[in-house]
Specification:
This protein is an alpha/beta fold. Helices cover 36% and strands 22% of the residues. The chain contains 9 helices and 10 strands. Strands 2-7-1-8-9-10 form a 6-stranded parallel beta sheet, sandwiched between helices. α7 packs parallel to α8.
């Protein structure tokens, strides 16, 4: 049995948020993290480098999740820096890129990230889907995490199968040589049987600090959810 470290390492200034699957609440968790970090003081901004499923807002393509991160940021960054690749179709990025004839490159993402990092003390970067979901036909999320040199925060969607999904994701992160900075339990299914016991099992088996549990809400408010996060001292 693997247990979290007795003394958690310092809270990283910048990290990448991934999930155990699509639909586990990465964006809400990322926005809640932004609010929790802002409450500690300093400038904090969010980023969603690649987002599929966009609509025209104020004359430009915008993604709901990216807008959530932008709204939770302080200072408020330019949308183009928050979401360099805003893709129209609500499908896997690889398919959305193919539909639009776009070849994804890391360069625009890295440039946008540097602009965000220059105006903030902390940066929260949200990925796509689960960890093994590719960014494009030629790039995995690992390529971006390595290029940005970021540790990862895992959002576990609390539903049947979450223990398996979480442990498999943690194993994949370890095999990829990525540091797991912490994990968050997100109650995506409020009627999940034996929810408390599942969280307890994960706390015993995931080798990273537990950053808290976000309660289910029909219309989640990241600012209010931030108080449920338990971030270790910086």
């Amino acid at each position: 049995m693997i247990s979290p470290p007795a003394t958690p390492p310092p809270l990283p200034a910048r990290f990448y948020v991934t999930g155990t699957d699509t639909g586990v609440g990465k964006s809400v968790a990322s926005a809640a993290l932004l609010h929790a970090l802002r409450a500690r003081g300093g400038r904090v901004v969010g980023m969603k480098p690649v987002a599929s499923g966009c609509e025209v807002v104020d004359g430009g393509w915008r993604n709901e999740d990216a807008l959530l991160l932008q709204a939770a940021s302080d200072p408020r960054p330019a949308y183009a820096d928050v979401n360099p690749y805003a893709l129209r179709a609500p499908v896997a990025p690889e398919l959305a890129l193919r539909d639009e004839g776009i070849e994804l490159s890391l360069a625009p993402i890295l440039q946008a990230y540097e602009r965000l990092a220059a105006q903030a003390d902390r940066v929260v970067v949200e990925g796509v889907g689960g960890w093994m979901a590719p960014l494009s036909a030629t790039l995995d999320q690992l390529d971006l995490v390595r290029a940005l040199d970021l540790p990862v925060v895992l959002v576990v969607g609390m539903r049947l199968g979450c223990i398996n999904h979480a442990r498999l994701t943690v194993r994949a992160l370890a095999e990829d040589g990525v540091r797991l900075a912490g994990w968050i339990a997100n109650e995506v299914e409020p009627a999940m049987p034996r929810l408390d016991e599942n969280v307890a099992i994960l706390r015993m088996r995931l080798p990273a600090p537990y950053w808290g549990r976000l309660p289910h809400a029909p219309t989640p408010d990241p600012a209010r959810l931030a108080c449920h996060l338990q971030l270790q001292a910086a």
